[in-house]
Design a protein that fits this description.
- The complex is a heterodimer.
- Chain A is of the alpha+beta class.
- Chain A has 10 helices and 10 strands.
- A 4-stranded mixed sheet of chain A has the order 8-1-10-9.
- In chain A, strand 6 and strand 7 form a beta hairpin.
- Chain B is α/β, with parallel strands linked by helices.
- Helix content of chain B is 22%, strand content 16%.
- Chain B has a 6-stranded mixed sheet with strand order 24-26-25-31-23-29. Chain B has a 5-stranded parallel sheet with strand order 3-2-1-8-9.
- In chain B, a hairpin with a 4-residue loop joins strand 13 and strand 14.
- The longest helix of chain B has 16 residues.
- Chain B is globular.
- The two termini of chain B are 43 Å apart.
- The interface between A and B is large, with 40 and 39 residues.
Chain lengths: 267, 820
């Protein structure tokens, strides 16, 4: 099993967004143009230049209100659908010993197959570079025995980074303690894909669907088509570029961020 | 703070009120989270708005802005009426048994001694009754009708729960929830604290808000114990340090008090008018040491140690008053160092009027901020409203400043910890540190006055100003001077205890004969033999009470929990094993061969060898203080439930804000009879017929103060791009306002444009039978930077607390209209 993981304890998140700023700083990402649309969130979704986003969801709650703050980015799945979907050898890979999923943007051909494959819609296509971008798990830091930038910056310990087994054990303890306050508290991620799980997992206060997360994350149907029909082609020695072009032609990629424009976030 | 950030982990109950702790102090907030996680603490947030702090609290309790004293006064009544107090603590460690003068009275919301015309009190009738021996009279049974305890009971009996509901708009069951939660800490085994910030201070009776909470903590026995206390959350990293070093108009470093014209003609008069008992009897040594630090060899006994050089107060010279008289053309120049009044000052129209009348203005900042370019835009007309620049003659000089990572030096945090930091990178271009700027300015002034024979120029010429030539060495040299040093051998019983030239290890070595110098007595010890601010010996995580005595230096004398003598009983034993801090060890040997001293988990905030049964002495460091009196700074050695020290009454009393939509339910006295209201044509006050809604200003995590530091940073500008205001769904629906829609918010001072954040996190309240709506408005925006927006302070009035003159920006009146 992969050794490293991140655990996001939603009960401890105060939505300060230090994680998102640290992420932008470490990855040298530019500012996304935003404007106020009615919510603190401002940016409606992840973008090719925003790998981590805190969502703000306000809900009436017993005469008062609750405000759900969720810092999210790539789940770094084991047996990741995006890796499976990627037609270019080496463009999207999973670190065998650490577990994180990385995109080599020099190799990426912008086919957006990973975008379709991801159950959470994490990878984002950037039309300017014609590549896809997402959370890197701070590979350069992690490979040099440093924590991820987001975990490093989190002031309340909502994002922790470290040994996957230890974090899983901590998460189990936390979920029990949290049930007193949040009866529906649950761990999200490790059970995905029939137990293969993700390397970034969450302690949620509510059901996953409350946060707009799929309760049973699965890869899209398109992935089956790719895995069963197209991928064997690579074994026949056809060049990656050709395959990529073919897929680009066959698959109807989702609209990229720039085309979609800025929508409204949760209020 | 009486306690400190890490100590918060020891609390059983946490009431955050008047603060948005999680948003504005997210790093310190980790200790609140730790208390919740590891100590099973109950976390309550009392605030008009549901914020990110409320989001992680167990309970959010809404209340109307400006009703805090009613809220807390109701708690005092609840504790007293239900006998839910720590009775031993109250009887022994507070002034509850003291008898008050029979001239003291409280009628129709007003205390005795009011001069309504001058808007000030004469506190003569607020004093302790003295016996024939000149000593204060006490009734240990607390039954005397004029005992502090009985007066307290009578005063707050008016704050019954129904009345409090009417004033605050808070539901009865929510009030009782908070009251009973805090009441659960009345036992020695449990503790709780209040954390507050500008939500308490920025009111026309802000100081009394804090006092009410302090009184509650005395009643509950929560002062001097782990997880207790009153914890102020200072906004900027070094605001505590600025206060300690008296970057204020009314004080001298170490809270020595600025001499006043008329009252203090010479040093003797200034010193003689100080306290005659308590630890403040040592003030002469601290004052003379300060004068020696500032004026060096020129300060001699025969010239009153240059006491005449000190500026003498001629009344109020606060920030608000300064801009008021600036607008009258009475001030020629201003230096804004780490200060952006055009965005941050209350009543932006007044700020603009003031700056427009200056001959010259210096702005030292990282960016060219709103103050530096005030002449381009007049905030009263909103963003982009051009000022009549040609009519403004002010000459502006802008100096680029170095950021915190570009310099070394010390910060004093809210918990009084003085922590050293090293320079991380070099400044770009000509940017200089504030220290370099200030020292160069002093050097230039000295050059300009050089050779002068005039007496009035001596303060500049005699000022000690040698901090070396190397810029990097300046901060350490300044801290060494603040710490203090021996000018001559410091003698005790004829022996030299500190040699001439050596750094002072503690303020107890300061002398009033000129043999010592020191810039701020409470900091003495921070740089004795070594720079303890740089010390980094941390306790093991989870170990003890988190005092971390080897990490940095906490003033005074490295004490982490103030008044910690109160954690022990009269005999010096811990009142609770769970909440112990220090205790008396009768067998411990002292260097002088005598036995017995205070030992424990913190530095005792007490005479180290003063036995619990020690009788008050009329000599020594602690005049009048007995071994069972923990509050050593007060002459009576006790915490004050009744105090004559404030300008607006010995008990906190609820008054409506100066601008309010309702009458005062408690008395005919609507707002504070002594609140400061600045007279100016820029300061009209609003009435509810024209301005029906309550407005409160606040801050966000993503921006800092007036925003120059953050609205110029792309990553932060992205997170909070535009000025918005929070409005309840009910009011938005009434006014037809949609989420994100541009609206106009106006007060009697001006109007601004902001986008609507329509939310369930604010709700209308019923106040004395009337529906009251409240608007929330962050104040970070201005017309310079990447993220720009109108200046929220345009709406705020020039109104102040009578003690400290802070503005009333947390409760005022406004109107809101759809469209902008």
């Amino acid at each position: 099993m992969p050794k490293l993981a991140m655990f996001v304890d939603v009960t401890k998140c105060v939505g300060c967004r230090a994680c998102t700023v640290a992420c932008k700083q470490w990855n040298k990402l530019p500012m996304d143009k935003t404007h106020f649309t009615g919510s603190y969130q401002n940016l409606p979704d992840l973008t090719p230049t925003t790998y981590r986003l805190v969502t703000f969801k306000e809900e009436p709650f017993g005469g008062s209100v609750s405000w759900h703050l969720l810092s999210h980015s790539c789940f770094h799945c084991n047996d990741a659908p995006c890796v499976k979907a990627c037609p270019v050898p080496g463009a999207m890979t999973q670190s065998a010993d650490k577990g994180y999923v990385a995109i080599d943007r020099k190799k990426c051909i912008g086919c957006k197959y990973c975008v379709t494959a991801c159950p959470w819609g994490i990878p984002k296509y950037e039309s300017k570079s014609e590549t896809v971008a997402k959370c890197t798990f701070c590979a350069e830091r992690v490979e040099n025995n440093l924590t991820t930038a987001c975990a490093k910056s989190c002031p309340t310990g909502a994002i922790s980074f470290g040994d996957r087994e230890a974090l899983l054990a901590a998460a189990k303890k936390r979920v029990e303690a949290s049930k007193k306050t949040f009866p529906k508290a649950q761990i999200y991620g490790p059970g995905a894909y029939g137990g293969k799980g993700t390397n970034v997992f969450y302690l949620l206060k509510e059901e996953p669907s409350f946060y707009g997360l799929p309760p049973e994350p699965t890869a899209s149907a398109a992935l089956g088509f790719w895995k069963d029909v197209l991928r064997p082609l690579t074994g026949w020695g056809i060049g990656a570029t050709v395959i990529g072009a073919l897929i680009h032609y066959l698959a109807k990629g989702p609209a990229d961020y720039e085309e979609k424009g800025e929508g409204h976030g949760h209020s | 703070m009486t306690n400190h950030f890490i100590d918060m982990k020891n609390a059983d109950v946490i009431v955050i009120m008047g603060s948005n702790f999680a948003e504005n102090h997210p790093v310190g907030f980790q200790w609140v989270m730790e208390a919740v996680e590891k100590n099973n603490a109950l976390l309550i947030h009392v605030d008009p708005r549901f914020t990110r702090t409320s989001a992680v609290a167990h309970k959010h309790v809404p209340m109307r802005s400006g009703s805090d004293i009613a809220f807390l006064g109701g708690m005092i009544n609840h504790l007293l009426a239900g006998d839910k107090i720590d009775r031993d603590y109250v009887a022994n460690y507070t002034n509850a048994p003291f008898i008050i003068s029979d001239k003291y009275a409280f009628t129709e919301g007003v205390f005795s001694g009011l001069d309504a015309e001058k808007r000030s009190y004469n506190p003569e009738s607020w004093q302790y009754e003295k016996g024939p021996d000149g000593k204060s009279k006490l009734d240990p049974t607390l039954k005397h009708p004029r005992s502090v305890f009985q007066l307290l009971k009578a005063h707050y009996s008016r704050y019954d729960i129904e009345t409090v509901v009417k004033i605050t708009g808070t539901r009865k069951e929510d009030l009782l929830f908070v009251y009973d939660a805090m009441a659960s800490t009345a036992v020695p085994d449990r503790s709780g604290f209040f954390a507050y910030a500008m939500g308490w201070t920025q009111h026309s009776n802000g100081v009394q808000h804090i006092r009410t909470a302090a009184m509650i903590q005395l009643l509950l026995g929560n002062m001097g114990v782990p997880g207790g206390g009153i914890n102020a959350l200072r906004g900027h990293a070094n605001v505590q340090g600025a206060t300690d070093l008296a970057v204020l108009f009314h004080d001298l470093p170490g809270y020595l008090g600025l001499p006043a014209q008329g009252a203090h003609a010479n040093l003797k008069e200034y010193l003689d008018k100080g306290p005659k008992a308590g630890f403040w009897v040592n003030r002469p040594a601290f004052v003379v040491s300060l004068l020696k630090a500032w004026y060096g060899d020129a300060a001699r006994k025969e010239n009153d140690f240059c006491f005449d050089y000190l500026p003498k107060s001629k009344g109020e010279h606060s920030f608000q008053q300064a801009f008021n008289v600036m607008a009258q053309g009475k001030i020629k120049g201003a230096v804004c160092l780490g200060q952006n009044p055009m965005g941050a000052g209350p009543n932006a129209g007044q700020m603009f009027a003031g700056l427009s009348k200056l001959d010259w203005l210096v702005s030292v900042d990282f960016f060219v901020n709103e103050t530096a370019e005030f002449w381009k835009s007049n905030p009263t007309g909103g963003l982009g409203h051009k000022a009549d620049s040609a009519a403004i003659k002010t000459e502006v000089f802008v100096f680029p400043a170095a950021t915190v990572v570009e310099k070394s030096g010390s910060f004093t945090n809210s918990g009084r910890w003085i922590q050293w930091h090293e320079q991380g990178s070099k400044s770009p271009g000509d940017a200089k540190t504030d220290a370099v700027f200030t020292i160069r300015l002093g050097q230039e002034l000295k050059k300009l006055y050089a050779g002068s024979a005039e007496k009035k120029d001596r303060p500049i010429l005699d000022m000690t100003w040698d901090y070396g030539e190397k810029e990097g060495e300046i901060p350490a040299r300044v801290l060494k001077e603040i710490n203090g040093y021996a000018v001559k051998d410091v003698l005790k019983d004829g022996k030299a205890v500190v040699k001439a030239g050596e750094q002072l290890p503690s303020f107890i070595f300061m002398r009033d004969d000129g043999s010592t110098a020191g810039g701020c007595w409470i900091y003495t010890g921070v740089f004795g033999k070594e720079n303890k601010a740089a010390s980094r010996k941390a306790d093991k995580p989870g170990e003890g009470i988190g005092a971390n005595l080897g990490w940095s230096f906490a003033w005074p004398a490295n004490r982490r929990i103030l008044y910690n003598r109160a954690s022990a009983d009269l005999a010096g034993k811990p009142r609770s094993d769970r909440k112990k801090v220090i205790w008396w060890d009768a067998a411990a040997e002292n260097p002088d061969g005598k036995k017995g001293k205070w030992v424990g988990l913190d530095v005792p905030d007490f005479g180290a060898t003063m036995a619990p049964d020690a009788k008050p002495s009329d000599k020594g460091l602690f005049v009048g203080i007995g071994g069972m009196h923990p509050f050593i700074m007060n002459p009576e050695g006790r915490g004050r439930l009744f105090a004559a020290a404030l300008k607006d009454g010995p008990f906190p009393e609820h008054y409506e804000p100066v601008e309010t939509p309702v009458d005062n339910v408690l008395s005919k006295q609507k707002s504070s009879p002594v609140a400061k209201i600045y007279k100016s044509d820029k300061n009209p006050l609003g009435t509810p017929d024209k301005y029906p809604y309550v407005l409160t200003t606040y801050r966000l995590t993503e921006h800092h103060l007036a925003g120059a530091m953050t609205r110029n940073l792309p990553w932060l500008a992205e997170l909070m791009p535009n000025l918005f205001f929070e409005i309840s769904k009910e009011l938005a629906s009434e006014l037809g306002i949609k989420p994100g829609e541009m609206c106009t918010i106006s007060s009697a001072r001006g109007s601004i444009k902001a986008q609507a954040c329509v939310t369930d996190r604010l709700k209308p309240m019923t106040i004395a039978g009337k529906k009251v709506h409240e608007i929330g408005l962050p104040w970070h925006w201005g017309f310079k930077g990447i993220a720009v927006g109108d200046v929220a302070n345009t709406l705020v009035a020039s109104v102040g607390d009578p003690n400290v003159f802070i503005q009333e920006s947390k409760a005022l009146l406004c109107d809101v209209k759809k469209g902008g």
